[in-house]
Amino acid sequence: MLFDLLKPAIYTLDPERAHRLTIAALRAKPMLKSHPVDGPLAVDVAGLRFPNPVGLAAGFDKDAEVPDAMLAMGFGFSEVGSITPLPQEGNPKPRLFRLVEDRAVINRMGFNNGGLADALPRLKARKDRGGIVGVNIGANKDSPDRSADYATMTKAVVPYASYLAVNISSPNTPGLRALQDEGALVDLLDGVIEARGTSMVPIFLKVAPDLEPADVDAIARISMDKKLGALIVSNTTISRPDLKSRHADETGGLSGEPLRDLALQRVRDFRTATGGEMPLVGVGGIATAEDAWARILAGASLVQLYSAMVYEGPAIARSITRGIGKLMKRDGFSAIAEAVGSE
Prior knowledge:
Layout (H helix, E strand, L loop, with lengths): L1 H9 L4 H13 L15 E3 L2 E3 L3 E3 L10 H6 L4 E7 L12 E4 L4 E4 L8 H10 L7 E5 L8 H12 L5 E5 L14 H15 L6 E5 L5 H13 L4 E4 L19 E4 L3 H15 L5 E4 L5 H10 L3 E4 L1 H6 L3 H15 L5 H4 L4
Parallel strand pairs: 3-4, 3-13, 4-7, 7-8, 8-9, 9-10, 10-12, 12-13
Antiparallel strand pairs: 1-2, 5-6, 6-11
């Protein structure tokens, strides 16, 4: 209700400024404990017990400033980042656009963040607070060895992460998606796994929706060979369906409602390619309980959202979680795990 009252004022602000004000407000929010882990919507993935399947996607909390505040808002888990070894400004502004008529967002942020040295003290400080906080890692734009950047990040943050999300699918760092190619992906993951050492922290791989069938098959096979914890399907798209907004022609990654069908299909594709043996995290265009439930039925054990908060506010997590509970009962399931892939 408060968000609905404030939304007209928020929409008068530049989107990036509105985002920074939101982070500042959340940093001032009193710390609250996260959900109990044994509720009816709890789900086990990669050795972790998630109190509910609705998570916050990377990109909102780039510098690990408010993961606990987001858990307190009802998210079952929060993914911070993407964090790179060195701080970087990202791409020139403006680089974030609300497509209100399409309930969508286009961004070309370019991994803007304060770098490892900025985020690491905050990750260390919250280590014993509980709750599932994943750390999404990326490479610096000008790095001479991007695979080495991922290894550096892994070694530094793995003691403080519930899981590690390897992001090779942002369209806003030139050449980054080439790391999804088979040979490059094997080398990258080998370096990350070696840097993880003896830690049991699971590794999740975040992939793009703009993949050919052969790419899906190769990524699925490599992910299973390397015993990854899960695939995050998917990042923003460089495709452009019919859009109404005046910002429709902006370059960057498109997220929100227009991505929904494509991202849902990719979950189905990866479910088929992995034979249901690899946990999937469904992301892209999720704004309602029905959207989240469709992703679960298609094969996702967990879901994530971000762009929908632009239009519905942070209370969306509790709303979707309640809705999933009702849909689960309607369809005769007693646990999330029973519903995964059941379509």
